[in-house]
Write a structure and sequence with these properties.
Length: 255
């Protein structure tokens, strides 16, 4: 997981729908079939949860929350604040996500702040895709490509599956960028993954130093290798009404 580091950045990115949390970054997000009248959602990392890291093998769902988020407009100006009503889901096992439901709809946010959400892509991302990692906490972005996918990514006791590895140079992310959306750079305003970690100190499988483990159990690690986690898995847990529901058959998130 990413630790906070003091640093100053500039940016040349479209920040509409990017969110800042007290300790992380996030995004205003909708599903492909969401309606404007649906309650809006904020996506960030599991390790950004306000109650602390979920333990390995643990998940949180349908819990009340009043967490506040700052939304940005396209010019990286603070458009306003929104508040959660509940934690739809949070876990750091298999992937690293927290999904919040807000107490306002997408239509209300558009009317109040003129801010549109990103759309979460329902398909597995593709190697070679040009991407941007946009951080509301630091008000800056990074540009690179999806280099490859790690079979497993291990960090301390956490195991993430099919992690996105960033190309280098470009996405040398730091603490506070945790939870930033990994956005398709084609201008479609679509999220393909969620930023979560980088090997900071060239250590093997320790906190802030993830290592890759392949299908045969071989371990590799490289200082400066950054990663994101899968988000398309969320779609496997949507019911016929397009609502998040862990009881859906074949839901791929830990539950």
């Amino acid at each position: 997981m990413l630790q906070e580091l003091p640093e100053t950045f500039t940016n040349n990115y479209n920040f509409e729908g990017i969110a800042a949390l007290s300790n992380c970054s996030g995004s205003l997000m909708r599903f492909e079939n969401s309606k404007d009248t649906d309650k809006a959602m904020i996506l960030t990392n599991g390790h950004c949860l306000e109650t602390g890291f979920p333990k390995p093998g643990q998940f949180v769902s349908n819990q009340p929350s009043s967490r506040q988020f700052t939304l940005f407009d396209a010019n990286d100006q603070e458009a306003g604040t929104v508040r959660a009503s509940r934690i739809l889901y949070s876990s750091m096992t298999r992937t690293d996500i927290t999904l919040y439901e807000l107490n306002v709809t997408y239509a209300q946010i558009l009317t109040s702040y003129n801010v549109r959400p990103f759309t979460l892509v329902s398909a597995h991302p593709t190697a070679g895709t040009n991407i941007q990692v946009i951080s509301g906490y630091w008000n800056r972005g990074y540009t690179c490509t999806i280099e490859a996918f790690a079979h497993e990514l291990h960090e301390e006791g956490y195991i993430w599956q099919d992690s996105v590895r960033y190309s280098r140079p470009g996405c040398e992310v730091i603490g506070g960028t945790s939870g930033s959306p990994v956005v398709n750079a084609d201008g479609s305003r679509t999220i393909v993954a969620i930023n979560n970690t980088i090997n900071e100190d060239n250590e093997q499988c320790t906190m802030n130093n993830p290592c890759e483990v392949d299908e045969k159990g071989a371990i590799s690690y490289h200082q400066g290798y950054g990663y994101a986690e899968q988000t398309y898995l969320i779609y496997s847990c949507l019911n016929k009404d397009n609502q998040f529901d862990l009881s859906v058959k074949d839901c791929q998130l830990l539950h």
